[in-house]
Q: What sequence folds into this?
């Protein structure tokens, strides 16, 4: 039998599997409904380090603010987060441990890290593998 060559379709399918989100994908879309409260807690804990308290990117056209339910990523005030990166990593670790341990991620852990390492969703300028290594190390240290 002849082997099928990897064509454009399979490459597109692979990319879609690896990146099942676009720039308008909300953080909450990656999390199961039963853990929405954990997302709110994460945003509250990170609020001092987020631009405009985390509300800058999700003001509706009507001018209403809906908090973490319209948040399309975590955009940090880089001056405020300077020297506090470990706190941010620890908070992400606590969040991920709780949510993943309870089956609350709608995507794979790798997709979650890919989402947060994407410049459209986070401005920490950290690669997927580095973020994953730091968060997993923090999970081991904290638990």
A:
């Amino acid at each position: 039998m002849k082997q099928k060559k990897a064509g454009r379709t399979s490459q597109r399918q692979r990319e879609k599997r690896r990146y099942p989100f676009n720039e308008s994908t909300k953080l909450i879309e990656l999390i199961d409904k039963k853990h929405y409260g954990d997302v709110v807690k994460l945003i509250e804990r990170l609020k001092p380090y987020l631009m405009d308290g985390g509300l800058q990117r999700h003001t509706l056209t009507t001018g209403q603010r809906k908090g973490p339910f319209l948040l399309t990523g975590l955009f940090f005030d880089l001056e405020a987060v300077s020297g506090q990166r470990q706190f941010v990593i620890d908070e992400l670790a606590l969040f991920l441990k709780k949510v993943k341990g309870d089956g609350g991620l709608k995507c794979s852990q790798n997709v979650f890290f890919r989402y947060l390492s994407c410049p459209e969703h986070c401005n920490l300028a950290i690669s997927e593998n580095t973020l994953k290594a730091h968060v997993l190390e923090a999970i081991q240290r904290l638990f």
